[in-house]
Specification:
heterodimer; A: 506 residues; mainly alpha; two-stranded antiparallel ribbon; disordered C terminus; B: 178 residues; 2 domains; 0% strand
Chain lengths: 506, 178
């Protein structure tokens, strides 16, 4: 109870309230702008948040993270252009509904499903808190090492059809983390006698380059286009009532979002895929999916909005980020010497509770904001994409330069910007680089401290959680190999029609 | 038969330019591998798990093995024409990188607000916006960004050297807020 009161007190600070409002409203606008997205905004704002209190900085970033998908649904439904990548599935059923003249109904359902998914995941987080607080202290160095290893493995294997490139880029991320003066034996690693490499390659610089500058360059070099005009009439919140009739789909989809959000490396896309498949298979009208099915829309939006809350679970409990956005947030913790992980639950439960409450509030703020602003947002998103590129490049400068006023950092970020542009053009994944950097660093530190008490290899997994994690890693590998063998056998069978798109690697 | 099986196993969707990237990345990984001995140290009386060279070795071997497999899968996948046009697109981005770096160098001299206005207006013109409304919007955007980050959020950006030449009445204001 004391923790709850203390959590309220933290949340009641005016700076936190302002951060929450700016983050939530800003997140919706950013999410609605095709070509920006939460990752770009968080990367740009990250260094600015270092001067704030950790709760203020995290609330701002969480606001953007949690609300961007609400905004992303607007252009996805009304003009067939997803605001963020995770809203792509929303276009399948949202846009056909708009074409049928049911745009307001589709938007209304999307907002309601998003709200349901968001609140559902936070409730799960709150209910799971005592379990987390109990389990987290049992995670020692070897357990965290194994969890990070499992995270890398899942990130790689989650990129179906791109497994080799994901593994190659995750390894590259791990390599980037090792560059510079190594902190234990003080030896130089891959500095090539260059003083600017001695301090290593900063994660924020890489993040800004890969997410923000690359996106700016892509928009600047590519052909200019502005999203089309649209207008919506009618009661936007009639969908809350309609959602009650689809509560089974919403609940299952949100549960899948929570489950996938907790597992490092999977996140929105997997949860959407699973929930959409579930909704279609259990629907009385499966043929309508992809042609304006309200069930499909609810499945997609409830699942993707349940992920942010759940993604905080491995971050807060173990200090292990499951995807790029939580990896960025981890740096806010580090800058303030707040180490997420088992100790956070033991020592700063009020801080954790304040974060949970902030997450609930942001969903309410966003819903209220959308009540009045949908048509205004439709005007804002008509910014030409090249001008959007100018804006992102200008803002990227603040992000990189304010870190330590280094021209070298800006040059490195620009280099990663070009690299990110190439990866985006080739449809190769960026996230494994960031997670390779973060999880590689965690693995290096944790292996060193864990092995100091290990005599034989079996000692490494002689504790229950370590053993479970080890078995899970073996299972993941075994299941992946089984799937590959199965797919290979299927390909060898005679096909009725040639299908070149279902190719696979790794 | 073996070639067919390999093709079946490794074939994937491949965009134009994929193989150029795969070759360059593998070459980079091999270069790093060749430098592993000289750019990392093996420390005596230190166990394997605490060796500074351990993680660079793991990471670079990972890069080499998986970039080789990525190249193989690229070579075995159906090609979409337009390789060099795509490489040209990548190189076009360097023009904007150059503008960005000029902006970075200019800020400590000209100050954040003036260089941001110049940068945004120049980029707007360069990207084809000529109307007065867009150019005014560019100036407003630049002013809002500079004031928001430097004056309000007090983000760590140095004052411009040029501000020293301003009259006393506005010099301190410019040094602190612009």
């Amino acid at each position: 109870m004391d923790n709850l009161i203390s959590g309220f007190a933290i949340l009641a600070q005016w700076q936190v309230v302002v951060a929450l409002i700016i983050g939530s409203v800003g997140g919706v606008i950013i999410g609605a702008l095709p070509g920006v997205g939460a990752a770009v905004a968080i990367a740009i704002l990250l260094p600015a948040t270092f001067s704030f209190e950790p709760i203020v900085g995290l609330t701002l970033l969480l606001g953007i993270y949690g609300s961007s998908m609400y905004g992303g649904a607007i252009p996805a439904i009304l003009i067939n252009t997803p605001g963020t990548a995770v809203n792509a599935l929303t276009t399948y059923d949202g846009y056909p509904m708009t074409k049928r003249g049911e745009g307001h109904r589709a938007l209304s359902l999307a907002y309601s499903a998003s709200f349901f998914g968001g609140i559902f995941s936070i409730l799960c987080l709150i209910i799971l808190s005592p379990v987390l607080a109990w389990v987290a202290p049992h995670f020692g160095s070897r357990e965290i090492f194994l969890a990070a290893l499992m995270g890398i493995l899942l990130v790689v294997l989650a990129h179906r059809g791109q497994t080799f490139s994901a593994a190659m880029l995750a390894s590259f991320g791990m390599f980037l983390n090792t560059v510079g003066l190594e902190p234990v034996k003080y030896t130089k690693r891959f500095t090539f006698d260059q003083s600017w490499l001695s301090s290593g390659i900063n994660l924020i610089v890489v993040v800004l380059g890969l997410f923000a500058i690359s996106q700016a360059l892509l928009l600047l070099v590519d052909r200019d286009h502005a999203p089309g005009e649209a207008h919506v009439k009618g009661n936007i919140f009639a969908g809350l009532k309609e959602l009650l009739g689809l509560k089974r789909i919403a609940t299952v989809s949100s549960s899948l979002g929570v489950l996938m959000g907790m597992v490092p490396g999977t996140g929105e896309f997997t949860s959407q895929f699973l929930s959409y498949t579930y909704a279609q298979k259990t629907s009385k009208d499966p043929d309508k999916f992809g042609d304006g099915s309200p069930e499909g829309l609810v499945a997609s939006e409830a699942a993707n909005n349940a992920v942010p809350g759940a993604a905080m679970i491995p971050l807060l409990a173990l200090g292990i980020p499951g995807e790029a956005l939580t990896a960025m947030m981890l740096s806010v913790f580090y800058v303030h010497n707040v180490i997420p992980g088992p100790q956070l639950f033991a020592d700063q439960m009020d801080f954790v509770l304040a974060l949970y409450m902030a997450l609930i509030l942001l969903n309410v703020i966003v819903l209220v904001f959308l009540l009045f602003s949908t048509n205004l947002l439709l005007k804002i998103i008509q910014i030409p994409t090249r001008f959007l590129g100018v804006m992102i490049l200008t803002l990227s400068f603040v992000g990189v330069f304010s870190l330590r006023n280094s021209v070298t950092d800006c040059a490195i970020a620009a280099g990663f910007g070009v690299f990110g542009l190439i990866l985006k053009r080739l449809n190769l994944p960026i996230v494994p680089i960031i997670l390779g950097m973060v999880l590689g660093g965690i693995m290096e530190v944790k292996l060193r401290s864990a092995m100091a008490r290990v005599k034989s290899p079996l000692d490494f997994i002689d504790r229950p959680i370590a053993a479970i994690l080890f078995v899970m890693i073996l299972l993941i590998i075994a299941l992946h190999i089984r799937t590959l063998v199965q797919e290979h056998r299927d390909r060898l069978k005679p096909q009725p029609t040639g299908d070149e798109d279902t190719t696979q690697q790794g | 038969m073996i070639a067919k099986t390999l093709q079946d196993m490794f074939r994937r969707y491949r965009r134009p330019g994929d193989i150029v990237f795969a070759v360059v990345f593998l070459a980079f990984a091999l270069f790093l591998l060749s430098q592993l001995g000289s750019e990392t140290k093996v420390v005596k009386r230190t166990k394997w798990f605490a060796q500074p060279a351990l993680w660079p070795t793991v990471a670079i071997w990972g890069m080499v093995i998986f970039s080789a497999l990525h190249l193989l899968s690229s070579a075995l996948s159906p090609r979409i024409p337009g390789r060099w046009k795509e490489v040209g697109f990548w190189l076009l981005s360097l023009e904007y990188v150059a503008y960005f770096l000029i902006y970075v160098v200019a800020v400590p001299w000209l100050g954040y607000l003036p260089s941001t206005i110049l940068f945004v207006v120049f980029l707007a013109l360069r990207t084809g916006f000529r109307t007065a409304s867009v150019l005014s919007l560019s100036v407003i955007f630049a002013v809002v960004v500079a004031v928001l980050f430097r004056a309000l959020l007090q983000v760590n950006i140095p004052a411009g050297k040029i501000y020293e030449q301003l009259p006393d009445s506005i010099r301190v204001f410019a040094l602190t807020y612009l």
